[in-house]
Amino acid sequence: MVPPTSPLLFLRADAGPTAGSGHASRLLALGRAWAADGGRAMLLTAAPSAALAAQASETGVSVTVLPAAHPAPADLEAVRAAAAAAENSPWVAIDGYGFDATYLDGVRKSGARVLAVDDFPRLADYSVDAFLNQNPGAEEMIHPLRPGAFAMLGPHWSLLRPGFAQAGARRAIEPRAAKLMISFGGADADDATSAAIRALRRLPAPFEAVAVVGPHNRNAAAVEFAAKGLPVRIERSADMPALMAWADLAVIAGGVTMLEACAAGLPALVATISENQEPGAAALAARGAVRLVGRAPAVCDEEFGGAISALTADRAARAALSRTARAAVDGGG
Prior knowledge:
alpha/beta, 7-stranded parallel beta sheet, globular, 36% helix, 333 residues, 6-stranded parallel beta sheet
């Protein structure tokens, strides 16, 4: 049992139809590592889903539900109060595009040390003690940090569960990729999942696929319809390290899932689903770590189908992607 005086880490992130699941998932990976090292970690979130609560429980992170979501003032005040009541200058890790410079500064003024996790330098000033941008290409970006702030830039700092790197260490590249994984995040507002499934009709048999439909995906009925008559299993939640260890090829979005696939050495076709995913996906594609097929929903079924067909049959290309991906994202962040 972790003693109550052990170092405390607060994790501030939300998950939902607009935010997706990536922000909370990567902070929970940090919380898992913190707890494994003898610390206490607590997720501060607004209206957590059952899936998010279960994920937190599995990682040894407790959950506190905030009285209101950001930008409501009650959110910041609750976080400040929690930090001020804690002993030993706790850390507060904050991840989400809705948190502005005023929010970061307000938490820091409560006496806490602040880690900001961001995907690009979107603020004019980061009044924080540490900063993480785990995306490829972050090393070349200018981040306006306060003097003395510790910067962690690039995919070697990726916040990932250890199971992904373990899957990469056991990766075998088959002559033909017959086991496919499809995942476009927790929300997938543009329903890229259905487009990728429809593209599978162009593949020669036999193959089998698993499509992960996230907890905040509102297009589940469309995904089920697209999969009719195909050897595709739909999962509302999944053990992602185990699924990536099983799969021969991934068809996925950019962002956290892309970094997980790289650490797992899983060859991946990437279709970005938001503007902020594009620089990181392009940087990994330029290194030869993933194959980029464009921006959803503009990627049509035919483009998906052609890209999937070509890569399932090309063992050498998949082997090269796997090697380069693991070198780019080692999973030890």
